[in-house]
What does this fold into?
Amino acid sequence: MKEVSPQGEHNKLNDAERIKNYIPFAENVFEKYCTDKNMKYRQLHLNDNADFAESPIPMWAKMSPFLKSFPDYFVYNDKKQMLVEVKSSPKVKVKDLLHYCAVHTMYAEGHATDYYIAFCFKDGTVKFYTVEELLGLIPIAEYKQYHDGRRYYDFTSVTKTNR
It folds into this structure.
């Protein structure tokens, strides 16, 4: 049985513990949101297994971080289509933010497909941000460091406000 980490503690687990206890609540929240809004979606996970050590893709761990960080979903209806990165926390690693900028530039900017980062919360709330919006919020986000040295922006105070 998988254990749910206490609020704000999941990032303190090592990789093996995080994988072992991975529960796709953010994906579930996001898919329910899409269904409720009559949006169709396709999950784009290149690695279809949460256990990255047992990936069906040979040498998954050695692949380009950019390729591994491809957006989670393609979402569409008759009026709109978008790529969406689903986040279970309002914390964004600096390296991931750089990847978001690249994905936006390569696949969304100047094209018919929009790109969003969707923060999905356990209460069912989903908040969408464009890359430009996140970059604009950096001055009011907290800049922090995980125990393993990776730096991130904490957008918790920003995502608590109504949009």
About this structure: Strands lie at 40-43, 73-76, 81-87, 91-93, 113-120, 126-129, 142-145, 151-154.
